[in-house]
Design goal:
Rossmann fold; alpha/beta; 7-stranded mixed beta sheet; 2 domains; elongated; about 300 residues; 5-stranded parallel beta sheet; binds NADP nicotinamide-adenine-dinucleotide phosphate; 11 helices
């Protein structure tokens, strides 16, 4: 392992770098952390090339670029732009986790998979997953992780199906997965989706309840329901913060709560940052790597 000082350049397309991510990076062992805000995609290449040539290749592995923001596609494009800008043998590592979403999605899907396996003897393969909050960054990442594991994934639109159609097309083009866009705007559409779902991810905005008491009564096929929202009211009526495979009151489904997910999310992000610092080769992480790490942490 190189003894070069670990430096993290944190690139943020919006106004503020996340204080959560800064703290995580410092606690993982980065000694120098530099925030860059309002960064556009075309600025990634010159910033990366400015960084690589200042350190010999064995030092470069201790240089990291972290991509934040609120846009999953932009974060993935930034990682790609950074990798394309590298000039071997000069190197550095990259990690995208916009709004913490990649590690949150990884934690949620890994916990759901574990509950399915340990309590029901099932896997994600062929299981019907409905995602509420599918246009958000957590919803987007969890849809692709689940589809890559063989789940049949529905992206539920709560206002206009066009954006979930677009998300499905982008996911097909980039990851080769087939996601089904569905309209969930009317109570009848939503009731139908919930009645047919085997897994629900409640990944809508904080404080928004997407699964009510009445919805749960219709959820006759529901096996597991996960909720990332920690701000009252819960995203799923009756969900408890630390639930991890216990039965949700009012239906037969097993619940995975936001702080159980948050715990795995936190350890996953920390684990990947430490791995980046200690690696002997450059590392490049997105939600697929986060999922592998989350799975490893809880298995
Ligand atoms: N547990 C954890 O460790 C953890 C970590 C990070 C985030 N979170 C939580 O994860 C959730 C999603 O975060 P995010 O960053 O992905 O948020 P986001 O990008 O802002 O997405 C929010 C999603 O919620 C949808 N939505 C908003 N109002 C809705 C409503 N009334 N009914 C149904 N859907 C609605 C949005 O749809 P539109 O696009 O149509 O507005 C969008 O799809 C939040 O609750 C956040 O607090 C939890």
């Amino acid at each position: 392992m190189s003894d070069a000082r670990p430096i993290l350049h944190m690139l943020e397309p919006n106004k503020h770098v996340s204080p959560f991510d800064v703290n995580m990076a410092a606690d993982a062992g980065y000694k120098t952390i530099v925030p860059y805000t309002n960064v556009s995609l075309d600025e990634v290449r010159p910033l990366v090339q400015d960084a690589i040539f200042s350190r010999p290749p064995d030092y470069g592995v201790r240089t990291g670029f972290f991509f934040g923001g609120k846009d999953a596609i932009l974060a993935l494009d930034m990682i790609k732009a950074a990798q394309d800008a590298l000039v071997p043998p000069f190197q550095l590592s990259t990690f995208a986790d916009p709004a913490g979403s990649f590690t949150t999605a990884a934690g949620m899907v890994a916990l759901v998979e574990q509950v399915l396996k340990q309590k029901l003897g099932r896997s994600l393969k062929g299981t019907k997953v409905a995602i509420f909050g599918a246009t958000g960054v957590v919803g987007f990442a969890s849809s692709i992780i689940s589809a890559l594991e063989g789940a049949d994934v529905q992206l539920v639109a709560h206002r206009g199906v066009d954006r979930v159609i677009k998300a499905a097309a982008v996911s097909k083009e980039r990851f080769g997965v087939d996601l089904e866009p569905v309209a969930g705007e009317t109570p009848e559409q939503k009731a139908d989706i919930i009645a047919n779902a085997e897994i629900i991810y409640a990944a809508a905005a904080a404080g928004v309840q997407v699964v009510s008491k009445e919805d749960k009564e219709r959820a006759k096929k529901l096996l597991v329901v996960a909720d990332v929202n920690a701000v009252p009211p819960p995203g799923v009526e009756g969900m408890e913060l630390f639930m991890n495979g216990e039965q949700i009151p009012g239906c037969d489904a097993l619940g995975v709560g936001p702080l159980a997910i948050g715990d795995v999310k936190y350890k996953t992000q920390s684990g990947l940052l430490k791995q980046m610092i200690n690696a002997t080769e450059a590392q490049h992480y997105d939600f697929r790597d986060a999922f592998k790490t989350a799975r490893g942490l809880i298995s």
